[in-house]
Every structure is written in structure tokens, then in C-alpha cells.
Amino acid sequence: MMNSMAQYIAQGKAFLGMEFGSTRIKAVLIDQEHQVIASGSHTWENRLENGIWTYHFDEVWAGMQACYLSLTNHVREQYQTELTTLAGIGISGMMHGYIALDSENEPLAPFRTWRNTMTGEAAAALTKCFNFNVPQRWNVAHLYQSILNNEEHVSRIVTLTTLAGYVHLCLTGRKILGAGEASGVFPLDELSNYDSRMLEAFDKLIEDKMMPWKLRELLPDVLTAGEQAGVLTAQGANLLDPTGRLQAGISVCPPEGDAGTGMVATNSVAERTGNISAGTSIFAMLVLEKQLSAIYPEIDIVATPSGRPVAMVHCNNGLSELDAWVKTFGEAAELMGAHVDRSVLYDKLYQKALEGESDGGDLLACNYLSGEHITGFDKGCPLFLRMPESRFNLANFMRVQLFSILATVAIGIRLLVEKEQVGFDVLNGHGGLFKTKNVGQRMLAAAVNTPVAVLRTAGEGGAWGIALLAAYMINRRENETLEVYLASRVFSDNSAEIIMSNAIDVEGFDAYLKKYRNLLEVEKTATRALE
């Protein structure tokens, strides 16, 4: 006899969320109580080809299918049933980038990810033209840079979209983006439409190029959280599940970027809430009570999935450099005949950082593997420095490696607090930095001098966040906002561990950050020396 959860799944009552992250594609299945009941994953890596950080498009589909197969195998093993239909689906992916498609929805150029810093000329020109900060990562910056570079493909573009939007298009046939994702493609107005004044300004800017399109024609339509963004087509069902078991006709919510799903997954979509996601990149999302009074090149103005304005402090460089050091320590242990589980190694080394001096013992580290727009770098070169009198030991070394992950995002947050008096009551942390209990939280609390919470569900990540948006689309009551839905139906009994900042840690990080700003002069010299 089929058990109750197996019947639940077989009857198509579960929701599927899938996120295409920087290092992993993850899928989760959740029930009506928003609990994860099955999951699947697939590992992939970006590559640097011809100076472009990219993923091959065949890897998108192979990775998606492998991830979905992993999920269905979990369902089969756990519940002895097949996954054939669902209540709703949501697709998420790395925010920003550049995917240009022709009339057959075929890519015209390599996928250019958020990690690229090749659009400085275009971003600066558009910022001036719009009187609005346009970061290098945004699709419109990549488009304009391609035009400035006289790239042949631009005249043939029919659709300009993101990774999440591309997958959604192929699954549903609909050219749509969620408001949060769309806000990293082109600026939105207060009604979550593309800003008409800026659209006109862009078209006028490229008037002499004689393009056969107007920009608005290329952009996907924008939908806010709760709206239906199409259904899974027969072709899309076969693309997701080549075995043919998955049925067509399933409702799909607007596709969102990892920034939007991170806000949802941490219940950070209301005013005076904020979250920090720390993985391959690190970024802070602070929901604003009012628009900023000035333009700041360090700050992106984006939106929540429901369209509220958000100040985003996005840093390209997150945990990758620290991961390389942990791998090296693991190799050293192996050399001595000691096999240490990787997760245990991370925990031990992170915990060791708590034993370090508050300022890291006068050690310094810069984690820039790639460019970093907040501090003005087109490319990066990781550094570790010490003076002869520095206290060089493992505890201090690990502490400054963690400090280096937080330093640049702290520069952006402090700018918002000092110049715009942006307020937030608590920051919610999620991502790899916060997996080891208390450590990442304590370091972040020191960096921003604010309480830092990690929710019990923080480890579920963006795949869970987009699954929640799929559930909201189906389950929401009339006039029930996303903020109310999350607070009352998802997080009402979700306890959080909160760490308060303490004066000694704050003082120590302040001292480190002062020297870190000077270290960036050394970083400039290093990147020039390696040209």
C-alpha cells in the first residue's frame, strides 16, 4: 500500500524548485507545509575561455537533466513512487550576465556570467545617460558593450535574457522574468515595469547604429511574485525529464535570480530587513524604506520578487580563495597519512578563527580571484601579506581569510549606513560561510556592527526559495502579499540563532579594514605586474 507522502507526490501536490548556482544545480521538492521532502543536485564549474567567464549551453541542459534525475531517484528510493506531475514549478539562476538569442531561441554568443568585468566603458556611459547606476554585470551593460565592440551578432538579437529566463523560456515558451531578476537586466520603475525614460534614452544612444530593433522588443515581460508565468509545455517536460514520465501543463512561477530567492529563503523581503548570501560571490540585499538620494557606483538598485526597492552590495569574490586554502590544508593532512573529511576540516579551521586576535594579528589577505567593481578592479590576484612582527599562526590566518571575504561587502554597507542612513534591524546570513555554527555569523556581526541571524532553514538556499515562490503562486489568498505569506505561513515557527556584535570584535575588524584599504594599493600593483 502506498504511504501518505507517496500518495501526496503521486497526486501532484508537491512543488519543485530548481536553481542554477555557480557551482551546483540544485532541485528541491516541498510539500504544502513548505518542508523539503526530496532533493537532487549536480555539480558544475564555470570556465575562463577567451577572457570570458562562461558555462557551455549544453552543460545547462545536461546539468538540469542530471539534477532532476537525482531528485527523481531520491523520490523513488525514499517513497517508492514516481514523480509524474506537480502543483507548481519555479526556476532560478545566477543573477545578471548576458544571454542573447535569435528568433529560434538559439544563443548568438557565449553565455557571459555575472563574474565578468569587461563592460566598464558601457556601464559608465549608461550610468551617465540614465543618471542611474548601471553595474558592469547587468545585461544592458553587456549589450551596449557588444554594440561598442561592433560584435556581429547584436543586430540579430531577438531576446535578451538571463540564465533563469532562458531556462524558463525553453520550458514554457514564455519570455518572462520575475521583478527581482528583471531589475538586474534593466532599471525598473515604481510599478515594476522597465523605466520608459531610460528605454528611450538607450534607443537614442544607439540611433546611429541602425539596429533593426528597439530595446523593449528584446526584453522579457516582467511579472511580480504570485503571478503565473506560463505552464510546462510538452517540449519543456521532455527537456526536463527525457524519460517521458513528467506531464505537461504544470504552472510555472516567474523565474528569479539567486538574489531574489535568497531574500525569500531568509524572509528578507519586507522593509528594514536584509540578508547576506556568501558563496562563490558574496552580496548583501537591504530592502529600502525610501529611494537613495544619490547615485553610488558601489550600490545596485534592484528589487524584491514583489517589486520593492533594494540596495544591493554585490562582490564578485566570495569563498573561492578560502576554499583553495582549505583544500591545501587537506592535502597536507593526506601527506601525513591523515584522511580528514572535508566538512570536518572546514569546521575545525573555521572554529580555529575564533581563537585568533580580534584584528587578525596584523596579517592581511585579499581574496580577489576576479575583478571587483566596488573597489575598482577589472581583474584580481589573491594576496596574503604579513610584516616581520605580525603574529603569524593558524588562528590569525583563518581569521583574516574570513575577514577578507567580508571586507568589500562591509565597505558597501558602511557607505549606505553613513551616507544614506539606511536602517536594518538584523541581517540574515545564508550560504557556505554560515554552515559552521557561530563562526561566519560572529565575523559578519563584527564587520557590520549589527545582529546577524541564521534561520533554521538557511541551508536550504535558493532552490527552496524559488519553490516557495511557486507555492505562493498557487496558495496565496486574495490580496495576500509575499511579505505576509512568508511571515505567517512559512517562517512563523522558524527559530533563528542570533549573534550580537561585541565591541572587541567590532574594534578588531575596524582595525583590519583600515589596513585592508591600504592593502588594495598593493593589489593594484600585483595585478599590473602580472599583465
Task: Give an account of the 3D structure.
The structure is a single chain. 40% of the residues lie in helices and 18% in strands. By secondary structure, it is α/β, with parallel strands linked by helices. It has a domain at 320-405 and 503-529. Strand 14 and strand 15 form a beta hairpin. Helix 3 packs across helix 4 (139-148) and helix 14 (439-448) crosses helix 17 (503-529). The protein is globular, with a radius of gyration of 23 Å.
Give the key terms:
single chain; 531 residues; alpha/beta; seven-stranded mixed beta sheet; 40% helix
End-to-end separation in angstroms reads 67 Å
Please give the share of residues in helix. Answer: 25-40%
Count of individual beta strands: 22
Strand content: 15-25%
Radius of gyration: 23 Å
Shape: globular
What is the chains' assembly state?
Answer: single chain
What structural class should be given to the helix and strand makeup? Answer: alpha/beta
Overall mean pLDDT stands at 93
